[in-house]
Specification:
Length: about 350
């Protein structure tokens, strides 16, 4: 009897313990369902907010883009004074649109970001082309002095420049019987040192193309900088007020501050960068980045002229359009180790 009672007592205890465990499991399951429902609700709300932000961005961006395109279209057939005012307004709107895009990068999808950046680049290109085509006389006096400066200053370069006036005058047009260069440029040169002063390139578009084993120093604040087909060169540039476009660059070292950097088809190249938005690479490999470290006496003044914030530098925030794996670093670019970074740029 005592044995039966003991077993019965044990069985009853076991039964109570089993009921407690079942109740505990039910409570945990209920809590998990509540938490899951909360997560789903938050995710839905977050998605809704993102969609609302995205919809607002698309609507605003397209509206502003259409407004700029309309301004550029109105330049056709207008007098120089009207074109000047219109281009100034279009430039200001383009800068604001770039800032709006930069501020929206965090919630935009990669595809939508690329589409917006491509549209903005097209606007900037159109703006430059219309300015060069519609206002060939605007800087005639300044450009005439620039040409004279080229002829006088050419021998100052560390290495004699063959036909130094030719690349700077490439793409020029005739105005009242005199040459007026539309673009400040160097092209088709090997094994030379090249320099442009602030007076020569201030707020102008600069083009460097088909250079091999050259050292280039660009002082002042260009409007845009285009580098194409660059091989084994060292190129140092003052603050660029808008974008730097690099295409087919190899085995080179670049140093430049800018608002935006777009790099295509580039290999084995070091970039010492100050960028206030983000750097973008596409179809690149072996590209490495470090903070901008070149200095010259009027650098701070040129930062002010370019409108760049010296305290904001996103040099290591690089978007690789060929690498969309979230959470995994792109193998196409790296950060230059501090011990390997160049700080002395003197010859």
């Amino acid at each position: 009897m005592d044995v039966v009672a003991e077993v019965s007592q044990e069985t009853g205890f076991a039964g109570e313990s089993g009921a407690d465990k079942i109740q505990e499991r039910l409570q945990k399951r209920h809590q998990a369902r509540v938490e899951d429902a909360e997560r789903r609700k938050e995710a839905k709300e977050s998605q809704s907010v993102a969609e609302e932000k995205g919809e607002y961005f698309y609507t605003t961006f397209n509206k502003e883009r259409a407004s700029i395109e309309e301004l550029l279209s109105s330049c056709s057939g207008a007098d120089r004074a009207a074109v000047t005012r219109t281009l100034e307004e279009a430039t200001a709107k383009t800068v604001q649109l770039q800032k709006f895009l930069n501020d929206s990068m965090l919630f935009l999808k990669q595809y939508d970001l690329r589409q917006a950046q491509a549209a903005l680049q097209k606007l900037q290109t159109s703006l430059t082309e219309i300015r060069e085509e519609a206002l060939p006389k605007k800087k005639f006096g300044f450009r005439a002095r620039t040409k004279a400066t080229d002829q006088v200053s050419a021998p100052v370069s560390a290495t004699p420049l063959p036909d130094a006036g030719t690349p700077a005058d490439s793409g020029s047009t005739k105005v009242d019987g005199a040459a007026a260069p539309e673009q400040c440029s160097f092209s088709n040169m090997d094994n030379v040192s090249l320099t442009k002063t602030a007076e020569e390139i201030q707020k102008r578009d600069v083009l460097l193309t088909h250079l091999t084993n050259c050292k280039v120093r660009l002082f002042g604040a260009p409007s845009t900088l285009h580098l194409k087909h660059i091989d084994s060169c060292e190129i140092l540039c003052g603050p660029v007020s808008s974008s730097v476009f690099i295409d087919h660059c190899t085995n080179s070292t670049l140093a430049v501050p800018c608002q935006q950097l777009r790099t295509h088809n580039t290999t084995d190249t070091q970039v010492y960068l100050h960028v206030t938005s983000r750097a973008i690479i596409e179809d690149c490999r072996g590209v490495s980045f470090a903070p901008f470290s070149w200095s010259y006496p009027t650098l701070e003044e040129d930062f002010t002229v370019a409108g760049l914030d010296q305290d904001r530098n996103n040099w290591n925030q690089v978007d690789d359009f060929n690498w969309l794996a979230a959470g995994t670093p792109s193998p196409n670019w790296t950060v230059i180790p501090e011990v390997d970074r160049k700080t002395n740029w003197d010859p």
